[in-house]
């Protein structure tokens, strides 16, 4: 078990470009969450999945943001037409459903996005 | 909607001194409470959690937190800090356990030799 991984770790892009981030959860974790963290703030929830079903997406910041988890394993978060205000750390977390660790979310190292 | 307030953005403390990091949440019928720690250049790690039962919960590295329902608080304490405890600490709450977490803004603990 290597933990939650995210790729890339850093992304620099120009305003107006599209970016896509990938998250690989801990194997057999059914739930996968995306959060965003800006400087001086705690993580802010964006969306989450149980297996391939997206259970909540109303917190995605705008219609430029979308996420999917097509096979219930890895997930991608896409930001279209990036803006400078999108610069932040994007965090992924996963958790099992059931079992002793049911309530524990395990976080990846994050992808730091810088929009120039 | 649930919210979390961490009253101190920065807490400097000398090594081997006690420390308390404060956390208050907005009231709810049933909440689950968490403290996460983020060491420099590392990801968030779960430090301890309160789900039910004893209101005092402990971590393996000497931290403890006490759930106080009447004061809607979940303060984190350690009787004697080490340099290695220098990190950012986040308090988080969820209404139904395995649902999205609501985080506070974090408290940066700096331990001074």
Brief write-up:
Chain A is mainly β and 116 residues long. Chain A is 0% helix and 47% strand. Chain B is mainly β.
Detailed description of the structure:
The complex is a heterodimer of chains A (116) and B (113). Chain A has 116 residues and is mostly beta strands. Chain A has no helices and eleven strands. Chain A has strands at residues 5-7, 10-13, 19-24, 31-37, 44-50, 53-56, 65-68, 75-79, 88-95, 106-107, 111-115. In chain A, strands 2, 4, 5, 6, 9, 10 and 11 form a seven-stranded mixed sheet that branches. In chain A, strand 4 and strand 5 form a beta hairpin. Chain A starts with a strand and ends with a strand. With 113 residues, chain B is an all-beta fold. Chain B has no helices and twelve strands. Chain B has strands at residues 4-5, 10-14, 19-21, 24-25, 32-38, 44-50, 56-58, 64-68, 73-78, 87-94, 102-103, 107-112. In chain B, the strands form three sheets. In chain B, strands 2, 5, 6, 10, 11 and 12 form a six-stranded mixed sheet that branches. Chain B has a four-stranded antiparallel sheet with strand order 3-9-8-7, with no helix packed on it. In chain B, strands 1-4 form a two-stranded antiparallel ribbon. The radius of gyration of chain B is 13 Å and the shape is globular. The termini of chain B are far apart. In chain B, 36% of the residues are buried. The chains are: A mainly beta (116), B mainly beta (113). The A-B interface holds A 4, 31, 33, 35, 40-45, 48, 56, 59, 91, 93, 95, 97, 102-110 and B 4, 6, 9, 32, 36, 42-46, 49, 51, 90, 92, 94, 97-98, 100-106.
